[in-house]
TrEMBL record:
GO terms for molecular function: oxidoreductase activity. SUPFAM superfamilies: FAD/NAD(P)-binding domain. PANTHER family: FLAVIN-BINDING MONOOXYGENASE-LIKE PROTEIN (AFU_ORTHOLOGUE AFUA_4G09220) (PTHR43539), FLAVIN-CONTAINING MONOOXYGENASE (PTHR43539:SF78). It holds the Pfam family Pyr_redox_3. Gene3D superfamilies: FAD/NAD(P)-binding domain. InterPro entries: Auxin_biosynth/cation_transpt, FAD/NAD-bd_sf, Flavin_mOase. Keywords: Oxidoreductase. The keyword Oxidoreductase applies. This is NAD(P)-binding domain-containing protein.
Amino acid sequence: MEQIWNVIVIGGGQAGLASGYHLKKRGLSFLILEAGEDAAGAWPQYYESLKLFSPAAYSSLPGLPITSQGKHYPNRDEVIHYLKKYAVHFELPLVYRSRVEKVSKESDYFRVETSTGKTYFARNLISATGSYSRPFTPLIDKQDEFKGSIIHSATYSTPTPFHNQSVIVVGRGNSAVQIAMELSEVAETTLAVREPVALIPQRLLGQDIHFWFKLTGIDSFWKFGKSFANGSSVLDLDGYKQKLKAGNPKQKKMFTAFYDRGVIWSDGTQEEVQTVIFATGYRSNVSYIDALGGLDGQGEPEQKNGISKIIPGLYFVGLSGQRSFASATLRGVGPDAEYVVKHIQNNLEKQNNLH
Ligand code: FAD
């Protein structure tokens, strides 16, 4: 019989790494199965100009700061470098190029089948494959008639291909606003929104807003931070307020339909556009646990605080809003991983006492 691990972690991005850190600290036996070739998670796929919305002091995984310059706002490539370094620094047992395809349960352990043909067995599973792997695009009336280009922000990389175009960015979250701001330098840009963009200042009384989030405990209280987590409040980076006030980018109530050359706004006027970018969020992708059950009608996990409500031994780390509004961020994923790993350890200890 193959080894039965205490835990198998599925996904070796920041959520998998933070889980690995806490599992190692508590001396549990585990492996991290990662589909890709490194520990950078989805960060290499995010747009080039991405700058973290929190400064370095509030952007680290447990045990190793991203940089000693706490006030610096790291960019995408610094995060990629950091995550790879983190995996090596803590000697985390990552198995790369191992996509988990199916999980099933056999008596009191999980059977985990991977793309390499190898099968693993574990008493507990942590699913850490990210909240942002299934781009979500709403269906708008007559979308199929539009002859221009429609993309999701997941495939947006730089403003260069959109020079001198007329572009609409749909959404009012951090990605929508950040993309619209940089596009507005090179293209005629409009943000299409259901409600006006709500900005919160990056700095308050001389401190970054994350200092106040931490001090007031908002970081840990889901209900207070909900509007930030669900993207209805956006950090005012680089003078966004002034730019919106000056009408570059423009902000308009969401259009109601497409026509062949553009969109039809809610007042009935038509506008010609070349590209529409949907920055309308993501869903998680945990289809590999379909066979276990434990997912709701939308394919999202039925869980509370990262613990499956349906399947004993099944856990999640890195889900958006899992325990607090910071759950799916670099600074928030560590405490969630610790919570889940503690729960696993307690259960393992109880089981050992029973045997
Ligand atoms: P991911 O990074 O998606 O990693 C999941 C890993 O699982 C991947 O490596 C993938 O290859 C692997 N995987 C997937 N399926 C399988 C499988 N079946 N088997 C094995 N492996 C699998 N957070 C911040 O803290 N600050 C920010 O400024 C910030 N900006 C963001 C901007 C954008 C555009 C987005 C989308 C998110 C941003 N986030 C930010 C949120 C969050 O920190 C990132 O999304 C981060 O990548 C989430 O890490 P993760 O490990 O949960 O998931």
